[in-house]
Fold:
Amino acid sequence: MKTKSTFFCALFLLLTSLTFAQKKDHSQSIISGKVNIKKYHSREDLKKMKKGELLDLYIERIEVIVNILPNIAFATKPGVTMESLGIPDTKDNKKALEENIEASTSYFDSTIEFQKKILPYSDTVDLIAAILFYESTLKALHTYDDFKKE
Structure:
């Protein structure tokens, strides 16, 4: 009988300590959201597409650019955290990152809302040029590390 009570006391203490143990926060990635596009296109590929498809490609590229370009001084790929960069994981720094992510999301949402209303009025030629420009910008991210060399 004594072993049962000892066992239950030990079990109770273990469960209590697990319940009240502080959970370590996982550091949030500096780059969040969509960071890749499915395919790069040639001008000929784009000319064969309908305007609706071009609009979707345009918006997809904006999303990737909005998620990556403002943060390239830190990272060009997802998964990089403040902790992995050696940035102190303080309450102020976490709040700044959260506010940045919220602002970026808000900007993207309002931009896309505007684009969906106004972009259909754009010329197809201009839309294709913009997509090609965005894609060349995104391709350049693959060579970003070359610019870090002194």
